[in-house]
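Intended use. Records like the one below are meant for learning the mapping from a protein sequence to its folded structure. Do not use them to infer anything beyond what is encoded.
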Amino acid sequence: MAHHHSTKKRLRQNAARRLHNRYYATTMRNAVRKLRATTNKEEAVAALPGVTKMIDKLAKRNIIHRNKAANLKSKLQKHVNKLA
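Structure written out for the chain above:
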């Protein structure tokens, strides 16, 4: 167990940040799943900018890796383009 005050504070901060990061990562994953499940072209085109913005924000804050963000955005764009 931690003995120093600064170490105890660091543990508290890390726990709070972990919860915060998990919330936003889960929200992003659910948005991606919802977009991938969409079969309507108009709905998908309308939802894509919001999901892309969410992915970019998470990559900027290092919640997800920037390469993962690029891969997600690329695959989502391909999915939307493929819809008839």
